[in-house]
Structures are given as C-alpha cells and as structure tokens.
Amino acid sequence: MKKILVSLLAISVFAGSAFAADVIEMKKGVSFKHKAHAEALKDCKKCHEKADGGKIEGFGKDFAHKKCKECHTDMKKGPTNCKGCHTK
Questions:
Q1: Pseudo-torsion of CA 76, 81, 87, 88, nearest 10°?
Q2: Domains annotated on the chain, with CATH
Q3: Which of 7, 37, 56, 72 could form a disulfide with 78 if both were Cys (CB 3.0 to 4.6 A apart)?
Q4: Chain centroid, CA 20 distance in Å
Q5: Distance CA 73, CA 71 (A)
Q6: Residue-wise pLDDT tens digits, 13-70
Q7: Quick check: helix, strand or coil at residue 86?
Q8: Secondary structure, 3-state, 21-62
Q9: What Cα–Cα distance (Å) separates residue 71 from each residue in 2, 9, 16, 53, 82?
Q10: Other Cβ atoms within 10 Å of 1 Cβ, number
C-alpha cells in the first residue's frame, strides 16, 4: 500500500511539472519561467496553496517581492534586485 501511495505522489508531481507553462509574462516586464521553477523546486506548495498548483491566492506585487526574493535569497540562486526580474 505504501508503495502505491508513493508512486501516486511521484506521478502527480511529475504530471504537474510536465503540464506547467513554460514562461508566464507578467506586468512590468517580468518573465517568469514557471516550468523551470517547478522542476527546480519539485514542490508546488512552496508558492501555491495546493500540491497540484492552481491560482495563487493574493498573488501580486507584494506577494512576489516577498516570496520570490525570500526564496532566491534562501537558495542563493536567482535575482534579488529590481533589474534581475524587471528586464524590460
């Protein structure tokens, strides 16, 4: 039974990253490489409320500035300054 549950979890994580959009164009010239983030993090709940993704409640400038910069700082990877994300 445990093997089945682990297998189902692995399949759902893979399926979520396989269907993730490649790049999402946001406001103020920000291009978000969703598929790359999904593959690197392997845990949708780092950003989304549910493990299978979906809309991020309260997503906006304040959320992105806090959550994204915090994650980039913690992982020591990715931009943390304005021009790192706002390229246009």
A1: 160
A2: 2-85 (3.90.10.10)
A3: 72
A4: 10
A5: 5
A6: 444 444 557 999 998 999 999 999 999 999 999 999 988 888 898 999 999 999 999 9
A7: strand
A8: CCCEECHHHEEECHHHHHHHHCCHHHCCCCCCCCCCCCCCHH
A9: 32, 24, 20, 17, 15
A10: 5
